[in-house]
Amino acid sequence: MGEPKSITQSFVAQVTPARMFKALILDSHNICPKLMFSSIKSIEYIEGDGEVGSIKQINFTEGSSIGYMKHRIDMLDKENYMCKYTFIDSDILMDRLEYITYEVKFEGHGHGGCVCKITSEFKPKEGVEIKDIDIELGKDRAIGMYEVVEAYLIAHHHDYA
After folding, report:
1. Burial of residue 118, with CB atoms counted within 10 A of its CB: 0-12 exposed, 13-18 middle, 19 or more buried
2. Strand 55-60 vs strand 40-47: parallel, antiparallel, or unpaired?
3. E strands of 38-81, at which residues?
4. Phi and psi at residue 84, to the nearest 5°
5. C-alpha pair distances (Å), 101 with each of 6, 11, 149, 152, 154
6. Separation in Å, CA 79 to CA 68, 76, 82, 105, 145
7. Within 13 Å, how many C-alpha atoms sit on residue 30's CB side?
8. Per-residue pLDDT for the chain (161 aa), expressed as one digit of tens each?
């Protein structure tokens, strides 16, 4: 079997953990296509309603390097602003990966801000090596998405309050 690779990244946001969690985790299917319309066409639950076991499909716009991705929600802790989900299907990448798991936690930081911590584990298929450049691209996309949502929440103080 290919060796799993784990990375942890974090960034500080000027928004409370509760608001970041509500927007990015509980309501991503609404807010992300609205804010990232040039890359995300839609996000929909194809199984479940957002609770543990639900499967969410992200559909990307034409011209993107990827058409769709599916995630399964494995853990959702609304009181502690944590979740864990697994990337389970895509029109690309699945020839190289068994799965990717993500654990996301939002912790209070400073006066009204938070630290967003994301731990990702990449499990390649037999004989496949995951390159650092592939991981860096994924990290940059994730942080970029979080920054767009943070900017929206700063500009719209009452949303997700």
Report:
1. middle
2. antiparallel
3. 40-47, 55-60, 68-77
4. -140, 135
5. 9, 19, 22, 27, 29
6. 30, 9, 8, 11, 23
7. 7
8. 577 888 898 999 999 999 999 999 999 999 999 999 999 999 999 999 999 999 999 999 998 888 999 999 999 999 999 999 999 999 887 788 888 899 999 999 988 999 999 999 988 888 888 777 667 766 777 788 899 999 999 999 999 99
Query: In the beta sheet, which residues pair with residue 107?
Result: 115
Q: Which amino acid is at 67?
A: G
Distance, CA of 65 to CA of 49 (rounded, Å): 28
The span from the CA of 111 to the CA of 15, in Å, is 9
The structure tokens 């690779």 sit at 5
CA Rg, the chain, in Å? Answer: 16
